[in-house]
Amino acid sequence: MQAWLEEQRSQTLRDRYSAQHNAFGVLRLMMACGVVIAHAGPIGFGEANLGTTFFAGQSDIGTMSLYGFFLISGFLITDSALRSSLPQYIRARLLRVFPGLWVCLVVTAFAIAPLVALYENGSLDGFWGHPEGPFEYVTTNLFASMEQLPISGLLADTPYGQIFGGPSAFDGSLWTLRYDLAFYGLIGILLMTSVLRRSPRVILLLTGVCYALVLRDFVTGPTLTSRPPQHGAIGPFPMIGAFAADWTLMLGFLFLLGVAARLYAHRIPINGTLAGLAAVVLVISLWRGGFFAVGLPTFAYLVLFAAVTLPKKLSRVSRRHDYTYGIYIYGFPVQQVIALLGGAQFGMTVYILLSLLGSLLFAVPSWHLVERPALRLKTESVRAGSGAAADTDQVEQLAETVPTADPGRLSPTERHG
Fold first, then answer.
1. 304 and 297 Cβ atoms separated by less than 8 Å
2. What is the pLDDT of residues 137-150, one digit of tens each?
3. Coil, helix or strand for 316?
């Protein structure tokens, strides 16, 4: 018994992590559903995101899910980058994001939006030629800038539209993709310059700087539950180009925590005592204040702890069919349509269930018809680049990344990265 306890105390994240057997898939699926659930408040009922009151205004279910997404992304993207050349890495990132996004934009603009126009106006008069019409929606947002969110002045009378007093977003969730791409680009630069492999302390420095900025805004806030940053943590400017300084900081901090966790997995202890303490600190910080100072790091630890300690059978979730991305990118327009049709009249619980089922109806074909075929192109390029003369270590890495038992199956790194 004593030997077992000592072994548990000495285990690290690297000891517990397996590319094939982890709970990152089920956690990401839960987070995608968490975003949809949180959005039920503003989209269906014109209220705050669910969880805002319980978390003392510091966060909500959707924002916590976003933090988890970026933490996991940092970990898995780094894991993928360490196994790849720069061209393979770039190809993988492009294939993961853009095919699904482009089809989503087209479906939203040319299938969902015309039906909304017919429902709201009884005809398509003025729909196609509107200054912010469907063609402009697709071309403007083609590279995930999401600088145009409404289409042809529609959805002004939905609860979400009434919040803003005019036409509202068809797919407000897509705003985070520009941050994903920016952070992918950062990892690409670190890979190209060999910093990722040879100078991991640079990552610790960047993470520490981000945390220092978070703490600076926390201590200058008027209360322990103030939601920083109050003024934009990166200089005095609220925006940096198309990027909001506060979101750049918060999401960047979680992403870098994931990167650092992967690079220093051999230094991060994984045990139940630390997880219990982290859970207590997280709950207290969400309830009483201080979440941004102590809650964010403890939340990150709990996500990583869960990913490597949950039962191995959960690794099957999203392993063969990963509907996470589809639920995330289609959830918002589905919820807008349900609200437009009066689905909220049946209450919050029914509205959430309809939202999740409706999102899944789009996510399933998105995976099978768009995302998985695109990801197969990625795995084919990795196999082609391995060559017949690959040494033993390279073959083992490829086998770990690309299972050979079923060419249609994708490893966790490939699906989520």
1. no
2. 999 999 999 999 99
3. helix
